[in-house]
Design a protein that fits this description.
The complex is a heterodimer. Chain A has one helix and ten strands; from the N terminus they run E-E-E-E-E-E-E-E-E-H-E. Chain A is mainly beta. The longest helix of chain A is centred in the C-terminal third of the chain and has 6 residues, at 111-116. Chain A starts with a strand and ends with a strand. By secondary structure, chain B is of the alpha/beta class. An eight-stranded parallel beta sheet of chain B has the order 1-2-3-4-5-6-7-8. The longest helix of chain B is centred in the middle third of the chain and has 21 residues, at 221-241. Chain B is globular and about 55 Å long. The chains are: A mainly beta, B alpha/beta.
């Protein structure tokens, strides 16, 4: 397990995402209103590329004719079969215990700390003035 | 089909040879321009398409994704999913090692069009376009003969015109037709198909002009998708009961994208009723399920899901492992990935049959 610097904070806008490769794995990093989350790019259902999915909200209903819409922009739909995943946890909505996208711990670290290490950032220029998104993988 | 791959077996890990029996190529109306006469091009500009439903420029039910396609299937160079043969080659044919891909064009093809002559002109144009834009540039892709099936004489003429070219491997129809597909008005299509040794592929959807269910238009897309199982049962029942398979004993029907979990139960139900009511249909010489067994093929995408994959295999056994063809439905959103689509507990022989051997036989691939 190593800590990988994958982006400057300003590079992924709120609602945005970035596909990165860490430790040989494709990982997609999301910015949900300033909080960062990372999921494996491979859908656990049939392997679609989650980085190309659509972010949507959660629609729930307690009875026919009623609905609640919440968590706008926090639910990812696979670009293939439209399975829904919670970006915060990677869990699928339909089968949360068995089908979950791999999720990775993400933190935001100041450049001053990043340059001290130990971080993996071979191909990534780091400056002390910026904050960076760090993925553990 | 969505059986999860929890414990992949050795057989599932071997990269299979794949013949994909359902790939959708996409033309725009402008793409068809070179193959339409000035008369029909001007007609199209003036009057547009007139399908047998109320949404001439759209679908009766909105799809879950734009154009019902995988979101990653839009060619990076522009254009619609299924329109760019180079991108299709890279993303699908090469990536999965597809040996042959049977193309089933859905629109614009003139199928279900109200104006019969325009319908025939559009079908012919799509057939020419398939050859020029796709099959002629990628020999692994094979074309279907789009026919204007509501005018069976015109459809028969179109089959005769194309059948000499072995790059056309089947006659192509849709499942929602203005009358039940066993009716005699459609028989010239079956006759021409048999005469030229071609199977008839019937893909779900279409523009019948009738509501999608016997009680009208349902509320949701999920209902429309599920309904294909019932309309497919109706068309199979009609073809058997009208005596199509008695009249055309060499006829091969490939049901595309209709699922198949319903098929064994339909056979049992028909057999039971036939034993009691066969004097109504004296032209049937055998039990209905025997016609199903002899004349029908089914395709995999979308397979019904079973919580226990063994249940699905049991259904496949009832249908026969020699009757099931692999289909991906590329580039549509409910696409099946050949690497993981089939239940992991099929043995190597069953996988080979579904992935390639059955398609080789029914489509006469060398």
């Amino acid at each position: 397990m190593a800590r990988h610097v994958v982006a400057a904070v300003g590079e992924i806008a709120p609602g945005g995402r970035k596909l990165v490769h860490v430790a040989g794995r494709a990982v997609v990093v999301f910015n949900l209103g300033g909080e960062f989350f990372a999921l494996g790019d491979r859908c656990p259902h049939k392997g679609g590329s989650l980085s190309q999915g659509k972010l949507t909200g959660l629609v729930e209903s307690s009875a026919p004719g009623e609905y609640r819409y919440s968590r706008r922009g926090e639910i990812l739909r696979c670009p293939w079969h439209s399975w829904e995943f919670d970006v915060r946890t990677g869990r699928s909505w339909c089968d949360p215990e068995r089908l979950r996208a791999r999720n990775y711990a993400v933190s935001v670290e100041p450049g001053a700390r990043v340059v001290e290490g130990p971080y993996v950032a071979e191909t990534f220029p780091v400056s002390v003035e910026n904050d960076y998104v760090v993925v553990e993988a | 089909m969505n059986v999860e791959l929890r414990q992949p077996l050795a057989a599932a890990r071997v990269k299979p040879t794949v013949i994909d029996c359902d790939i959708h190529p996409t033309a725009t109306l402008a793409d068809l321009r070179p193959y339409l006469s000035n008369r029909w091009w001007d007609y199209l500009q003036t009057y547009g398409e007139r399908r047998r439903h109320g949404f001439a420029r759209s679908y009766p039910y909105p799809k879950v994704t734009p154009r019902a396609c995988r979101r990653d299937a839009w060619p990076p160079g522009g254009g619609l999913p299924g329109s760019d043969v180079d991108f299709m080659r890279a993303q699908h044919l090469d990536h999965y090692g597809i040996e042959y891909g049977v193309m089933n064009p859905l629109s614009p093809t003139g199928q279900g069009e109200q104006n019969p002559e325009f319908s025939a002109a559009m079908a012919a144009a799509n057939n020419e376009w398939q050859m020029a834009a796709m099959t002629g540039r990628e020999p692994r892709l094979k074309s279907s003969i789009v026919v204007p099936y509501e005018d069976a004489q015109a459809a028969s003429a179109e089959i005769k015109r194309r059948a000499g070219n072995r790059d056309y491997v089947q006659v192509f129809m849709l499942s929602r037709t203005s009358e039940a597909l066993g009716r005699r008005r459609y028989w010239p299509i079956y006759e021409a198909a048999v005469e030229h040794g071609l199977p008839v592929g019937i893909h779900v959807f279409g523009y019948s002009g009738w509501p999608t269910t016997a009680t009208g238009w349902p509320s949701f897309y999920i209902e429309e998708m599920t309904e294909h199982a019932t309309s497919s049962q109706a068309l199979v029942t009609s073809m058997i009961m009208e005596g199509v398979f008695e009249r055309y004993r060499e006829l091969k029907i490939v049901l595309i994208e209709s699922g198949f979990g319903w098929l064994p139960a339909l056979g049992w139900r028909l057999d039971r009723n036939w034993k009691r009511l066969k004097d109504e249909v004296p032209h049937l010489r055998r039990a209905p399920s025997e016609y199903i067994r002899e004349h029908l093929w089914v395709s995999t995408q979308p397979m019904e899901e079973a919580e226990d994959p063994d249940h699905l295999i049991e259904v496949m056994n009832w249908i026969g492992f020699d009757r099931i063809l692999f289909a991906s439905d590329y580039p549509h959103w409910d696409f099946d990935d050949p690497f993981v689509a089939l239940p992991p507990n099929l043995d190597a022989e069953q996988r080979r049959a579904i992935f390639s051997e059955n398609a080789k036989r029914v489509y006469r691939f060398a």
